[in-house]
Amino acid sequence: MTLESHRIAFESNLEFPLDDFQRRALDAIDAGDSVLVAAPTGSGKTLIAEYAAACAISRGTKTFYTTPLKALSNQKYGDLVEAHGDIQVGLLTGDNSVRGDASVVVMTTEVLRNMIYAGSEVLDELEFVVLDEVHYLQDRFRGAVWEEVLIHLPAHVRIVALSATVSNAEEFAEWIQTVRGRTVAIIEERRPVKLTNLYAVGEKGNPDFHLLPVFMPDPADDLRPNPEAAKLDGQPTRDRAASRYPRSGGQSPSGRLFTPSRVEIIQRLADENMLPAITFIFSRAGCDAAVDQCLASGIRLTTREERRELRRIAEARTAMLSESDLVALRYDAWRIAFEAGIAAHHAGMIPPLKEAAEEAFAAGLVKVVFATETLALGINMPARTVVIEKLSKFTGEHHEFLTPGEYTQLTGRAGRRGIDDRGFAVVAWSPFVPFEQVAGLASRRTYALTSSFRPTYNMTANLVSRCDALEARHLLGLSFAQYRANSDVVALEDQLEIIGSLLEKERELMVCDLGDFVDYRALVAGTERPGDSAKRSSVENALAQMRPGSVLRTKRCGGRCVVLRHEGGRSGTRILVLGADSTLTRLGPPDFETAPQVVGDLDIPTPFAPKNPSFRRALAGRLRALKLEGEDANGDSAGSNQRGKKQKKTPPSEEFHPVSECPRLESHLRAASKADRLTKDYARLERRVQARSDNLGRMFDRVLRVLEERGYLDGWSLTASGESLMRINSETDILVADAINTGIFDGLRPQELASIASVFTYEHRGPEHRRPPAPRWPSGDLAKRWRAIERHWNSLRSDEEDAGLPEMRPPDPGLALIVKAWASGHDLSDVLDLTDDLTGGDFVRHMKQLVDLLRQISVVSENPQTKESARSAADLCFRGVVCASGVTAQ
To answer: How far does CA 712 lie from the centroid of its chain?
Structure first.
């Protein structure tokens, strides 16, 4: 089938004609390019990924479809099976492995990262990688994985990156192009269904609350705040909400305004034909309470036929659960609300109940979902209306307001394409949030994508294994974090040029026809001995003779550097150089003890563009490849001309200096004073440039230092311990490796191994100032092993503090007793009785993380008994409610 006929066949099966941005994206794929598609939620970005998958199927190649969440992977797997058939589609997550050799395989991004580091042969057949929800790369815990994938994928693989609307999409696409080749940015800011923003506010004396438009109608779509709503700011308030449900209410019992209750809002939406709706409540307990409040009020939103279908869905989704599991999860109470068309959706729920809510909501059977913000990430649950109860959320330590990007993500669910003419976003009034802030959030629809990339212990071990030192630093320099830092450097470089120009003018005013003014000033100040002037002159003469392309050796640049241009004039000659790590540095006479010598020459690429990262990387690559005789591993030579120990100063000469007779001496001195200030400003900016230019490099050096001190590295080689660390993918990677390498997991039965391993995956939820309960250990032997783990962590914390690295989070034994009980075969109800603050969903999530780690231990450990015990432990934990999922082999 030709490319054209394949495109025609694909488009003929679509439910809607292609939008312009979709057509441009498909054109780019047909042209052999990678694409970044930034568009609102529900606009049809996934269609572009499906086209890439169809292209790979038709050509006999492969597409990997990556997502940030297992739940999203499960949903995309089902969608792609429906589109392409079960034979063509597979799934690889920590929980499921279905046809991993299929033409299209859905997986979490971490799975692909691990395949890349393992050098999987299947990558040779890979044509496309889809990075869904790619803006997730700014997640501070997992975001670096997206950048690792983009940097390390084989060069022949093309990228289809799908993102929310971000303000710097062009910058992000330019970065992808620097690491992946030609990439086309496809940006669409228009929603497929228009959105009406509404403001829900109650007023004393009115039988119903107001639903005021946030913006005035405008043919030009200008977002002009509604003056009637703006008048509400400053009105007296009354504490009506506090009697309805937990919330911060108004301040004055005699006030006129109040916040409508959850029940009132849902009833109003039902009356106005604005359902189905998602109400975002930034609290799990709040979501559950909202469901209870609706039931207590007598709200029923379903017909008899709908209730029968809802019961069928509920029974099908929970078929794998035992009766005791259902009792522990309060299934009957959940089902009553579910059949009434009301459901909660949050991380504290087990996957089957969330999946039931998703299926029923998509089918129009569940009319109201109370959800935390995690639902906004990718899960396909479009609604007619989105309600945001509060514009602030509690982080565990303090309240913070939503960002425009978060508001856009949440309200992106409002409006179903092909069903609704428009969607609605309802914000509930609050006495603590002025209307101006509501309007501001609703009018700013984008946010800037940032990077969370930093070298971890596991990442560093893999870099050492795969690369030499220069290549590893080069790869770190390819990160989006460094790319953005380099953009900041460009602005700072512009400031440096301005200050440098002013400094040169002042230095020219310092030049005296009667003699060396700099020598005179230093002599008077007593800061220089006789003869230093001649030495400085020899250095300046050598610098003045440097030409673009001259290669020098200097420790200031980490070894070798290449001259780009001169900066400065007759007094204080400086040169701009580029180091082998792509860093720009300015060197002057104070940086050299003796006159620098040229040790090689390079051709400078054209066009000359030192501010362009691509130019710097290309030239740095040539510099690294240049062979220089007599250079040691550190880039130093026996004749290094770098300034060493300061020479002992002698008192200034009392001899007469000719400059003292200059009639313009005062003018020279004023210029010198100004030059001093400018020199300090220049040095300060240079330090900022240096900090941004090699921040990742310095952090990388610190990680290397810790790894070497702890026995994971020997120079630039991994030790046996380092080989194990390279295969541990965990937030506490080096502590897990410590435990494996020191035998902490050895000699344990599977149930015991699962219990002690849980300390590396569990983290107690709640404010930092609230101490978790004291650990309870099933045996004295496990308590002893826990104390050994604590010693490892304290030692690591000390090493990290010495190296200037952020502290790794501590291991947490809070789940150990519960894990031992579950691995020993106890029912869910028995297990949850052991804790007061663990929901069924929390338990399932923690157990899945533990199962993933146990499987890694079974692969990495060199002890045969430990390998078998870890495999058995994973099997014992992955049962019942933990393995219950809507995904089965098709």
So the answer is: 27
Measure the CA–CA gap between 246 and 241, rounded to whole angstroms.
8
Fill in the DSSP letter of residue 88: G
Coil vs helix vs strand at 815: coil
Distances (CA, A) of 742 to 156, 734, 785, 890: 41, 12, 11, 43
Residues 112-145: tens digit of each pLDDT: 999 999 888 899 999 999 999 888 888 888 889 9
DSSP code of 653? P
Kindly report the number of other CB atoms within 10 A of residue 590's CB atom: 11
Domain 3-187 - what CATH class? alpha beta
Burial, 121: exposed, middle or buried (Cβ in 10 Å; 0-12, 13-18, 19+)? exposed
Topology of domain 194-443, CATH: Rossmann fold (3.40.50)
CATH class entry, domain 727-882: mainly alpha
With a CB cutoff of 8 Å and minimum separation 6, the contacts of 476 are 455, 463, 482, 696, 697, 700
Q: Strand (E) positions, 78-232?
A: 89-92, 97-98, 104-108, 126-131, 158-163, 183-187, 194-203, 210-213
pLDDT lower than 50: segments of the chain: 237-254, 528-530, 569-571, 633-635, 638-655, 769, 888-890
**Residue 866, C-beta contacts closer than 8 angstroms, at least 6 positions apart:** 740, 745, 746, 747, 748, 753, 857
The pLDDT value given to residue 710: 95
Give the pairing of strands 584-587 and 158-163.
Answer: unpaired
pLDDT in tens, 397-426: 667 788 887 888 888 888 888 888 899 999
The residue assigned the tokens 């670096």 is 144
The 3-state DSSP class for residue 237 equals strand
Burial of 480 from C-beta contacts in 10 A (0-12 / 13-18 / 19+) = buried
**What is the location of CATH 1.10.3380.30 in the chain?**
727-882
State the pTM of this model.
0.74
pLDDT given for residue 463 in this prediction = 94
